[in-house]
Amino acid sequence: MHLTGYPVFFVLLLFCGLFPFLLFAISQLVQIKRPTAYKHETYESGMKPYGEARIRFDVKFYLYALLFILFDIETIFLFPWAVAYEKVGVFALVEMLIFVGILALGIVYAWRKGALRWQ
Amino acid sequence: MFESTLFWIFATVAIGAALGVVLAPSVLYSALSLIVVFFSIAAFFLLNNADFLATAQVLVYGVGLTIVMLFGIMFTGDTPLKEKAGKLGRLLIASISSVALFALIFTSVLGFNIKQFPASAQWIRELHEQGSTLAIGQLLFSKYVLPFEVASILLLGAMIGAILLSKKTFTSQEPGLTFSIQEGRLKPTLSAEWRKDVGFVDAEVATEEAPSSTEELKKECSL
């Protein structure tokens, strides 16, 4: 490992790893405990949290997973562009705009087809 | 020293998590364990100066692939394996195939000669100083700009395909595509809804409904 800048990365990693524990610890320390039966119930966005947790989900969610993957891969292409931006200049900017533009057609298509509308 | 310590830490985590994938009592736990495996492999890439590979590993495998897998588990339900019969046979097949796969990977790694890709000392120094992401970015926007743009069209095609296939839900009662035998030929018919969705303009309305005489011959196939 020869690259510089990793100490910052490790500090960030450490911070991210410890932060959730820190939040829970602070919450434990400062909270006022007046427990009631309702407060002990599992919170599930206002719904009653009864029944099986492992229900079968509607397949319509899958479209969002697929779209997510595609934009995830788009990010992979955007990343080296952002890193090399100062070296590759305006040409790369135009190329990247074309790239994003072509993919934006997909979003326009999804929008026109109503694929993003919740049914 | 620091690097080898990191390597052993991540190696332990990776092997432990990989064992977790295999031994976890539920598919869901296996999938969550797999995320840990992918992240430790990203750490290996980082330790080998492959910073772009590490990023891609986290973005594509650690996040993207596991999301698809978790969605798959959510759709199918977490039903435990019912059949215990033939466990020995399955174990045998699994161990033979995994040993064979390991042998394949091991021999191909051994047979791989890195010297066949000559790199100048200056190039290696640049890579070490700047990282591979910058080098990939520079190549992507000079020499390989056409493949880069073609990739966006590939992604667009995948996106449109995903939307088309998952937008409408077809059931066996209302299939998107039916096959009927007319005049001794197999005739595919798109459902009206599918036609509308694809933007199919059809001239003849008569083909919308199959004649009643061939109704019993009609074979359905839901898409």
Oligomer: heterodimer
Q: Please state the CA-atom Rg of chain B, rounded to the nearest Å.
A: 26 Å
Helix run count of chain A: 3
CATH class of chain A: Mainly Alpha
Total helical elements of chain B:
8
Average pLDDT level of chain B: 78
Work out the strand percent of chain B.
5-15%
In spatial order, strands of the major sheet of chain B run 2-1-3
Radius of gyration of chain A: 23 Å
Q: What's the number of domains of chain A? A: 1
Low-confidence stretches of chain A: none
Strand content of chain A: under 5%
Shape of chain B: extended
| Measured distance between first and last alpha carbons of chain A | 50 Å
- Which architecture of chain A per CATH? Up-down Bundle
Strand/helix succession of chain A:
HHH
Description of the structure:
The complex is a heterodimer of chains A (119) and B (223). Chain A is mostly helical and 119 residues long. Chain A has a single domain, classed as Methane Monooxygenase Hydroxylase, Chain G, domain 1 (Up-down Bundle), CATH 1.20.58.1610. In chain A, 64% of the residues lie in helices and 0% in strands. Chain A contains 3 helices and no strands. The longest helix of chain A has 28 residues. The model of chain A has no long low-confidence stretch (mean pLDDT 82). Chain B has 223 residues and is mostly helical. Helices cover 64% and strands 6% of the residues of chain B. The N and C termini of chain B lie far apart (58 Å). About 4% of the residues of chain B have low confidence. Chains A and B meet through α2 and α3 of A and α2, α3, α6 and α7 of B.
